[in-house]
Amino acid sequence: MREVAIIGVGLHPWGKFPDKTVVDLAAEASKRAIKDAGVDWRDIQAIAAGVYKWGAESGMVLGQSLAGRLGETGVPITNIYNMCATATSVLRAAYLNVASGECDVALAVAADISPKGFFPTRGDDPTDPAHARFSMVGLTNPGYWAIDCRRRMEKYGTTEEHLAKVKVAVSKHGALNPYSRYKKEYTVEEVLNSPVVSDPLRLYEICATSDGAAAAVVCSADKAAQYVSKPITIAGVGLGSAMYGDTSARLGMLCFPSKPEAPILSESVAASRMAYEQASVGPEDIDLLELPDNSSWHYLQYLEALGFCGPGEADRLLDEGQTMITGKIPVCPSGGLSSFGEALSAQGLQQVAEVVWHLRGEAGARQVPDAKVGMCQTYGMMGNSGTVILKR
Amino acid sequence: MDSSKFASHGPIVEGFFTWPSDDPRLVAGRCKTCGKYFFPKNYPMHKIGCAEEDIEEILMSKTGVLRSYTWQYYPPPPPYRAPDPFKPFGIGFVEFEEGINIVGILAFDSIGDVEVGMKVQVTVGELHPFDDKNLTWQFGPVSK
Q1: How far are the Cα atoms of A144, A204, A268, B55 from residue A208, in angstroms, in the given order?
Q2: What number is the ipTM of this complex?
């Protein structure tokens, strides 16, 4: 396998865009990435695209719809859906296209238009636990997170104030990012005064749902210099699935092993281990981390799952300000899901774009000083997760 | 419990619990190779190396221990059918001696009525008033 670099990234802003289609969003992000890379559409030799699952067939084959818009060149197109790991899977497919030597330049793109409110289910098999969780239990995504959050509070003494402080910390970063949807800086008091959605989680401690799109142009490292002066190396791009005996309240399930035989968030642990190994780095080498802050619980739990501190120690990192841009391990300098809202299948590439900007030194007011290695981690809905490690 | 209360009613989806019954139980699957349980029985979770076809149907214990819970203050999306007006409700994460936690609606009125570590019992209750296929499993106080 040969070395692969990211030579261009592009985002469509995150928010609600009722007058746009998912193809509109994907086209905008792709055009920005292509321009950023200094390539022409005709230079793209393969396309990997995220499946848009909430819409009609044009979203299921987003890559083809995009090619229709930007020019039908006949290149191979793969459309992928992999829950929270969709965008990472898309990047991985484009990466493998180039790493294998099959082509030199490939496009990774994902876009999402979210349903309003809680994410619903799809399909009509009433015996599917992912259906019955709604029809028989009424268990929403934040409901699952709240269950794991309370377990954490019981086990490690995480307080309601810690949960609020996560939002305060991330909102400070989001306020500095021109791409973020929510730019207000919150106080602990404001967060604690927001309504409880799924006790113990409050409204401002749970990410909203958004529309958005992100794209990256990947290129073989030996050809990257033809296009850009600051190619960013894809040092690792891991995917992980759950391991038996993970006691997490895994989203979409109705039962969960009670005797631990694997780490919690095992799919994310597996994905990160794979990426760490590929990149020959560990958490101590990472200069910034975009993690999936779907809720305040995720923020704390992921710092531990990814090895940035020991079990139960994330609260202290937060208290000490170590997760701020100026801290030991800057977390979600983009403002994270908390400031963007979740555009589920596109989120992994939004994280990648953010880390690329930091590694190039182009992140403006939120720049992590002298960032050399950055990490992107997605959540693991229904037992799958993705990790990307980038180096300058 | 007294099943005659809902005598003409049926489960929202068949196969998750025994019904009609005065002693309703959750219907789980068990792998004969590794001994692991899973719920519902048609969604097996195995250890590595198990014989996949070697599954038996098992009725879960009547009681378990509440290990965590949440209280939901906003109506979940369909296919949940929320009573109107919506009433906030609890969901429990209950450990059974068979080695699994199972989630289900809490048959308690308010969040102040439950605490982590309390023993609860499997019951059956109505989720909504819209038709007769409205029963689901719940976790309620242990009957004397």
Answers
A1: 16, 9, 22, 41
A2: 0.96
